Amino acid sequence: MMNDKLVFLGLLYFIQGIPYGLQSSLLPVYLRGASHSLTRISLTKILYFPWVLKVIWAPLVDRTGTKRCWLVGTVAGLALTCLVSATISPDVQYMGVVGSLLAMNVLASVQDIAADGVAVRLLRGQGELGLGNTVQVVGYKAGSVFAGGGLLAVIDVAGWGWMFALLACVYGGVALFVWGAPVLDGESVWGQGEGRRGSKDVMQPWKVWRKLLSVPGTPWMMFYVFTYKLGEQGAITMFPLFLLDHHMTARELGLWNGVVAMAFSICGSSVGGFLLSQYSIGMLMRRVFMMRTVSMVFQSSLLVVLEPSPLMKGMAVLSLSLQHFIAGLITTLTFTTMMNCTQRAEESIQATHYSFLATLEVLGKLSFSALAGGMVDTVGFPIAFIIFLFLTSSSALHVWRATETGVLKEQLKEQPQ
Questions:
Q1: pTM for the full predicted model
Q2: What is the pLDDT of residues 361-399, one digit of tens each?
Q3: Which of 18, 131, 403, 411 is the most exposed place for a label (fewest CB within 10 A)?
Q4: Is the pLDDT of residue 229 over 70?
Q5: Tell me, what's the pLDDT at 410?
Q6: Common-topology check for domains 1-191 and 209-411
Q7: Which key words tag this protein in UniProt (predicted)?
């Protein structure tokens, strides 16, 4: 039964990662190759905005219909969107590309609410939470690698139309799989005893927000998920473009940043799930956040080497790989901590609570990613990376203090069962 849960959740999160891979790896390289400014490239992050808004309609998904219907409807919608996108010519229909990717983000964000609601209720115990969140993060990143690195490498051969036709087939197959998935067969009993009360609350949103904020640990989690990726996100967004300007071609960057580095990220997420079964979350977070700070110091030091050389390329690939490995570790730890917090909430608001935290996480990354390009254009790469390093160090200090006196203190010595 546990394997069925993991396969089901992994597939859902895999297809969620596809729009992100298209926009984070394929689109920036395409625009930079067409000589667009870093500021304009960063502003394309606005296409992620539906992920910020998902908390608005999360109560609707939480309390109306079934999760199976929401999942099948949104995945089928993604398949139709890809079919339409296959007819677009990106060279002359730029706004058509923007519109199709925006539609994909809207549908994927709604699907994410339903998938998170299913995950919160299917996973029980710290062992299942660790494995489930590992599958969540790895599945999402695998989808991102498939769409970003893999499709970037073959788009010149296959073409835009065939690429989206393939994606339409992938989404269509997943929609059929979800329709018949046995892990959702007991869904009708999940909400028994709370349906009437939930229906009243959805008409009184202030009561929902009051319940969300009263869940133990929520205020700390809100600040943490909004800020923990700021410095890291700036570096992950801008360092590959620094390499594109000085050291690597778009094809090399597609391989090293879109495939190899993301493979390290997936490996880090997988290792995170294993470590969660051996050690407490608090102890792991303290050590991994310090490792990330050291990694940022190493990467920032490479900015002073502007002359292309095999040694520089090797050091850059090492930096990218290390950075993504640690980022994968931190993401698994963070999403496990989020789900742990959400499970303290009433069942009638669990998907909404988790979506709320996940929205803040996306908002933090989105807002800073959108500003990072303008920051580099204004002050240059070296000063911008000093700012990124400061933010990364502040996140490590915030986590350290939480394990000493805050909400993570009780998890510092707590061993997994």
A1: 0.70
A2: 877 877 777 788 788 888 988 899 999 999 999 999 988
A3: 411
A4: yes
A5: 64
A6: yes
A7: Membrane, Transmembrane, Transmembrane helix, Transport
